[in-house]
Amino acid sequence: MNKEKVKFSFSYHWFIFIIGFLMVFVALGFGSSTGHAYKSAIMSDTESGLNDVFRYGFAPSFRFVTSATLNVFFGFFVAKFGARKLIGAGFVSLATATLINSFATQYWHLYVGFIFLGIGFAWTTTTIVSTVVEKWFTSKKGTVMGIMLASNGLGGALSSVIINPMCNGEDGLGWRFAYRITAILFLLVGLFTVIFIRNDPSELGMKPLGSGVVTKAKKRGADWVGFEMKDILKKPYFYVCGLCVFLTGSILQAMGGASMVCIYDAVGKSDEMVDWVSFVFVIHSLVLMASKIFAGFSFDHFGIRFTFGYCSFFAIISIVSLSLITKESSWLAWVYSIGSSIALPLETILIPLLVSEVFGKKCHAKIMGYYLGLNVFGYAVGGPIADYFRQYYSSYDGFLLICSILMFFTAVTVQVTFVFAKKDRKRFESSLSLGV
Fold it and tell me: Distance (Å, rounded) from C-alpha 56 to C-alpha 58?
């Protein structure tokens, strides 16, 4: 009897893992990774009345501000309603957003649609996945979370071969039809998720996977008790890390939003080039999937400094490559594609892991909400500034070079911050061991 219960317990933990994988696969893969395809299509659709790049550029900001605000209060919402209800509301919001956008004829329609998109992403992606992993797993959290969030890459690869040709191909069904198909997908996956997911293993009489297991692995962030919030607010590196998270979000979002437009500006939009660009972004998505898995593995085995370091290095490489693409140097699109995939864990999996490593588990949910909020506020700022440069200077190139310099500054600052935070943690743990 007991053996059967243990076997069932193990199985359902991994079923929760599959649900989380599927949830991110669809929500981010078809809701976020397709953003550049929709943008390129709408900019080319002169009959839509929505092809002013500067005015359109504000639409994603409504999404990001909404997500950021909800992330700041995430701890309150998840405590009051639980992850399951938030996920259900999130998928309904995603479906509502894509339906509104599919019928949009004025910019304010898009702005409303992107507000619902922001609600949906706040409650179906990184923040909620981090909470699910925290509740259901006790060991190898970085690897588990990395694999779950890596499904974005697989979903993005699939959406690139479906949504991009549908939006940008000469014989495609159009961006409005693509939005409506996506809405149906969101509703179906949302229904499946709500039926089977549970807020906590105790609801099924279980314990988190790995409870009571002794491991010789070196401790990483979530294994230590952490500071009190009143003490965290007195630490300068709390604010320095927050600024770096904000800047990283701004830079990577600006780069991602400009990417497909930059490439099409360089190589043109013939059917042959549309197919080629779709393939470039398929590879981008597949490498992103592997990159997120490796980032989680790297955190578990090599720590936060190494993982942040190599991701930051590839962020700089990808920004510079994107700014230098021409028809003659179209190969740089591949450098951007692969480099940005390796860099993008900086704005997803590495934020909750940074919080675990630097501040511990006592105030993890609250600080994670703050930092993810700052990251998404950065998205809201980066996109419109990039589009302003394109509108008035006819190119993203100058702005991207500025971003590469800021990214270098941010990467160095974060590494210095980790040194101070590690010393502070050692002093704190020493005081606890002495009973001070």
Answer: 5
